[in-house]
Fold this protein.
Amino acid sequence: MIKGGTPLHGEVTISGAKNSVLPLMAATLLTKEPCVIRRVPDLSDVKFMAQILTSLGAQVKSEGSTVKIHAAKITGHGDYDLIRKMRGSICILGPMLSRLKKAQVSLPGGCVIGARPIDLHLKAMKALGAKVTIESGYVNCAAKRLVGSEVFLGGRSGPTVLGTANLMMAATLAEGVTLIESAACEPEVVDLANFLNAMGAKISGAGSPTITVTGVKELHGAEHEVIPDRVEAATYAIAAAATNGEVTLHGARMDHMGAVLDKMREAGVEIVRKGPSFTVRRKGALKPVDIITQPYAGFPTDAQAQMMVLMMVTNGISIITERIFESRFMHVSELGRLGADISIEGPSAIVKGGRNLSGAPVMASDLRASAALVIAGMVAKGKTLVKRIYHLDRGYENIDAKLKKLGAFIERVEET
Ligand code: EPU
């Protein structure tokens, strides 16, 4: 429950990145030795990945934001219902196949943001020599040996982030060299490559469209600190500007946020670097901007919904085009309940900004849509009730506590 109308003021510390920590946790399956991951955010998706690893035979221990994982012995069969529930769990496929030469993982379904096929993940496993079958809802991969290969991973909407992660991990223990072309360049891919290299892998080129993996005999345990969450940081930066407040973000990496910060500046938001931190505030009236989501280093799809709210409070028309996921506009109808004037034309949302917003009960449909509804609720006059906030807890650590500290009126309430 949010009472809107109060600008956010103060300081917030950004947590470790959800989309980095999930593949990092999966990577620990590649070694018999213990691994330590630091700066792990307290998120339901992380707890879920821990459950999946435990079900495969790994020991997972959490102490504050440090997680120790020891996969001394693992099974090649993943629990159907556990894996099916979280789309991100597909990244256990590569490490399981690499270590055991076989993997059985339930087929992840589509979700509200799009069909989310895994054809490129399967293409990658096949390229290394695995036989891939789909039976009774499971993907089965098996190989006598995995052999390095040249794999073009670009798809209809560009590169695949978790597909690149899966192939990098599968190739670490394959024989010979794997060349990944049209690889995803996201910072989360680089973070994973750094961890794998610390485990003894030989990976070069991560962060560019061409990654080379030279197979090694085995990997050993390693320690790693997760990169800061660039989407969480973008969410707080946008919330500061949307509520007309002033917030200093600590721990975020500006160099991972180029496209978002550039669009915010174009919209009339001032971003002032202060050592390792930066402060966000409006610089006069906001201006409408057009946005097209793209693979990294373009504008991230994961910040599209939040940016739409900033455009809702900006006088004029902005066009937001979603090019990564085919139905990532579920938030539009809910934002309409608060008074937004947004219409959808094909892959674009036309936002007529500057309308008066007033609080209403709204329904969260996915993680980033929920974040957008929370920001909109903080702007709208009166009371907004955001339902199904379990989506928020998947990807935002302590969001209510962090927003309260910034002066927001936000409470978790039981639905009656
Ligand atoms: N795609 C295919 N075939 C495949 C795989 C992907 O056609 O085999 C398509 C997808 O349907 C989509 C595009 O390729 O149109 C890009 O999808 P990608 O595979 O890159 O997405 P992902 O790896 O499954 C990760 C993040 C998402 C984020 C996307 C894009 C994790 C756990 N998830 O998903 O994060 O939106 O990359 O940046 O890392 C979120 O955090 O809210 C979230 C959805």
Observations:
- The mean pLDDT is 96.
